[in-house]
Amino acid sequence: MESLSFFVGVIGNIISVLVFLSPIGTFWRIVKHRSTEDFDSLPYICTLLNSSLWTYYGITKPGGFLVATVNGFGFIVETIYVALFLIFAPANMRAKTTILVAILDVGFLAAAVVVTQLALQGDVRIDAIGFVCAGLNIVMYGSPLAAMRTVVTTKSVEYMPFFLSFFLFLNGGVWVFYALLVHDYFLAVPNGTGFILGTAQLVLYAIYRNAKPSKAISDGLEEGWQHEHLILSSDRLHEKDEE
């Protein structure tokens, strides 16, 4: 059973790494144009916080090596993304990004670490960190819910790119399987939510797949979702890409 859980966890890590790397095209465009244009930094800031908290959870919990490693990778990648925003964003966006990073990625993270280290011990500490991580993950699933509502309203999948729905389904399913194998319900709940949402999105895609896609709209939604389906996400928040 231990070897099976490790194998499943490795598969989950590979899928999550691919999701973390999915915005590379966006940031290559930012670097090439030396401008963040209309991209929003908030999804990356939130994913950086998410990755940081899950890394802390994986380090704190015995046997959480696979959770810590993939989210540690995510922490590095998201830090680079946010740094590029700070370099290439216009003054108002740079100021907004700096404030959000200070509040969420520094202030909130530091408070979570200090409180759990000084006030809590043992399993209570692990459970507290797990609750925070799972809660943040679930909140970040608001974006796919909004997209599903739009698809039903418009009866068109142009608002819901297939591969993003597929990876939300696949990533959620693999991590739920892993969580059940290792009896980690803090991983199971948010990823189970992602798996259910991914399944629902694929069903909607099958129903409305004959609609003609709109590249401009799909690209915009893709930028908004690309972080919300990790263990993590996953996730997620909406970012607009103006063609």
From TrEMBL:
Sequence intervals crossing the membrane: 6-30, 42-59, 65-87, 99-120, 126-147, 159-181, 187-208
Main localization, broad class: membrane
GO molecular function terms noted in the UniProt entry: sugar transmembrane transporter activity
Membrane topology field: Multi-pass membrane protein
Coiled coil region boundaries: none
Compartmental location: Cell membrane; Endomembrane system
Entry-linked InterPro entries: SWEET, SWEET_rpt
Family statement drawn from the similarity comment of this UniProt entry: Belongs to the SWEET sugar transporter family.
BP terms from Gene Ontology: protein homooligomerization
GO cellular component: endomembrane system; plasma membrane
Pfam families: MtN3_slv
Keyword Transport (UniProt): yes
Domain of life assignment: Eukaryota
Keywords: Membrane, Repeat, Sugar transport, Transmembrane, Transmembrane helix, Transport
Its biological purpose: Mediates both low-affinity uptake and efflux of sugar across the membrane.
Name of the protein in its database record: Bidirectional sugar transporter SWEET
